[in-house]
Design brief:
The protein is flat, with a radius of gyration of 28 Å. Helix 6 packs across helix 10 and helix 11 crosses helix 14. The strands form 4 sheets. The chain has an 8-stranded mixed β-sheet, sandwiched between helices. Strands 1-2-3-4-5 form a 5-stranded antiparallel β-sheet. The longest helix is centred in the last third of the chain and has 32 residues. It has 14 helices and 19 strands. The N and C termini lie far apart (76 Å). By secondary structure, it is an alpha/beta fold.
Length: 515
């Protein structure tokens, strides 16, 4: 094939040749006299049609170019910007393969074996750098892309990014305190059904908004709320249920939603540890009125920091957005004005008629927005969630099979009936009267470079932060106290290999038999 083109000198000092071939327009980049004299054989060609940068060998492609060709146009600035961006991103890919891809060989008893962590490749790094080249530091095109694609992945109408999973929980609960919800609004002194065995920020938004957490015990094995106790805990003050899918294991959603519907209660699903989990074949986070996710590194995907709040309810979506964005009443995106076409046509509260809607506030809100660079990482991480889920399930099942013979010592984790968990961790509880303590086995594993974690706060009512907090316990918290004393977990995240999982099994066996 013979390409005919024209030599071009750009304002940026580059030389280029434009080529028309096969209904595509190509630009030959970094052309020099050396290339024309065949002393250098590789040239870079940018395809306008495919928006790709290619390396071509003039010996194989038979590209004939002569200096006497007429200069007909400059390389367009927009094309040159794309070429520069592609060159930078190709270097990022090389950097990843040279300095990030190389994994240290696992050495038992020497290499740290983490319970969780980031799993990524050059695509996340390229996306991150690509967003930095825009230098649009607040939420922008990647934010919009992620929110749209995440909502589609989960199967909801709306998803809103925020700066952490904890902020997501705060936004979710604060939304239910909005005056826009009328009689269903949660007020100070109202009660919310929850559990004490879990992470504090599932419960602290209840306290921060002046409502009263009502703690119900959990089942050992599934570590989820005793759903049969919920109805008897309800009083005229009860307005909502806010609980997490513990360790990625869905709680009994059919029973919870049945009670919620019967008593007209809000349901918030804390889905932070359960992205990819299913109940009756449907993804968790799609049953309640609002759900939340966290993108901190140990979770099912990561942005470093970051979280999401999602819902199918258009009114709730607007309230969530308001609380996240300073409490403002206006829904115009940053940098946009007059989406409602009546920016100066409102009269709200006791403000003068026509006061700028962009500076009208309907909630006592926050600024909990995400950065564009976080969203850029999330766009690539989201594509990997199905494979991450598969790896978590595989690692969990390998641990379960390897530790099955230790049931006389441990309560092994079990999935809720009708659930397909995407496990956050492999959780173990010592049975009563075993010949060792939780601290002893945890210290042994940590000494052998195996990272462990508790079931987070264990029992929130025993935490110093809850001294003086107004809460109610329905029944007892016997199992929650058992978890506090005797429960720990090890990792199942996708960065763990079969060799690493087998090492964990080996060490747990060794401790139990040698103790």
């Amino acid at each position: 094939m013979i390409f005919n083109g024209s030599l071009v000198h750009t304002k940026e000092g580059k030389k280029a040749v434009t080529i028309n071939f096969a209904n595509d327009k190509y630009y030959v980049i970094e052309l020099s006299d050396a290339i024309l004299n065949d002393e250098k054989y590789e040239i870079k060609i940018f395809s306008e049609k495919y928006q790709e940068l290619y390396l071509c060998d003039v010996r194989n492609q038979s590209i004939y170019m002569k200096e006497e060709l007429t200069i007909i146009e400059e390389l367009p600035t927009a094309v040159f910007e794309k070429v520069m961006r592609l060159e930078i991103l190709s270097k990022v890919g090389q950097f990843y393969h040279l300095f990030h891809e190389k994994k240290q060989q696992f050495e038992p008893e020497k290499s740290p074996l983490n319970y969780g962590g980031r799993v990524y490749n050059e695509l996340e790094m390229k996306s991150l750098v690509d967003s930095s080249l825009d230098f649009w530091l607040t939420a922008g095109r990647y934010n919009k892309q992620f929110e749209k694609e995440f909502a589609a992945f989960i199967g909801v109408r709306y998803a809103l990014l925020t700066n952490s999973g904890s902020s997501a929980n705060l936004l979710a609960f604060s939304t239910l305190t909005s005056p826009k919800l009328g009689d269903r609004r949660i007020m100070p002194g109202d009660e919310v059904i929850t559990v004490a065995a879990g992470f504090p920020t599932t419960v602290t938004p209840i306290v921060q908004n002046g409502a009263i957490p009502v703690f119900i015990d959990v089942d050992l094995g599934t570590y989820n709320i005793m759903a049969d106790r919920i109805e008897e805990a309800i009083t005229p003050k009860t307005k909502a249920i806010m609980i997490a899918h513990t360790m990625g294991n869905p709680f009994q959603l059919d029973k919870v939603m049945e009670v919620a519907k019967k008593y007209n209660l809000w349901v918030i699903e804390d889905n932070c540890d359960a992205l990819g989990s299913k109940y009756n074949g449907k993804l968790t986070g799609t049953f309640g009125h609002i759900a939340t996710s966290s993108f901190y590194p140990p979770h099912h995907m990561t942005m470093g920091e970051g979280g999401a709040v999602y819902t199918n309810d258009a009114k709730l979506k607007m309230i969530i957005e308001s609380f996240r964005d300073w409490g403002r009443d206006c829904w115009c995106p940053s940098g946009c004005d007059d989406t409602c076409k009546k920016r100066f046509g409102w009269q709200l509260g006791t403000l003068p008629e026509g006061y700028d809607h962009k500076y009208t506030y309907s909630h006592i809100g926050y600024n909990l927005r995400v950065t564009e660079m976080q969203a850029a990482v999330g766009v690539e991480q989201l594509k990997k969630v199905p494979s991450f889920t598969e790896a978590r399930i595989k690692n969990f099942n390998r641990l379960l099979a390897g530790l099955q013979y230790l049931e006389q010592y441990f309560i092994l984790p079990k999935a809720t009936e009708n659930a397909d968990p995407s496990w956050f961790g492999f959780i173990l509880t010592l049975k009563d009267n075993v010949h060792f303590t939780k601290n002893e086995i945890v210290n042994y594993l940590e000494a052998n470079k195996i990272q462990t974690r508790m079931l987070f706060a264990g029992n929130l009512t025993r935490q110093p932060a809850f001294d003086g907090v107004n809460y109610r316990i329905h029944g007892d918290l016997t199992n929650t106290d058992k978890i506090l004393a005797d429960t720990f977990l090890v990792g199942v995240y996708p960065g763990l290999t079969d060799e690493m999982i087998d090492y964990v099994i080996e060490k747990i066996h060794a401790f139990v038999t040698e103790k």
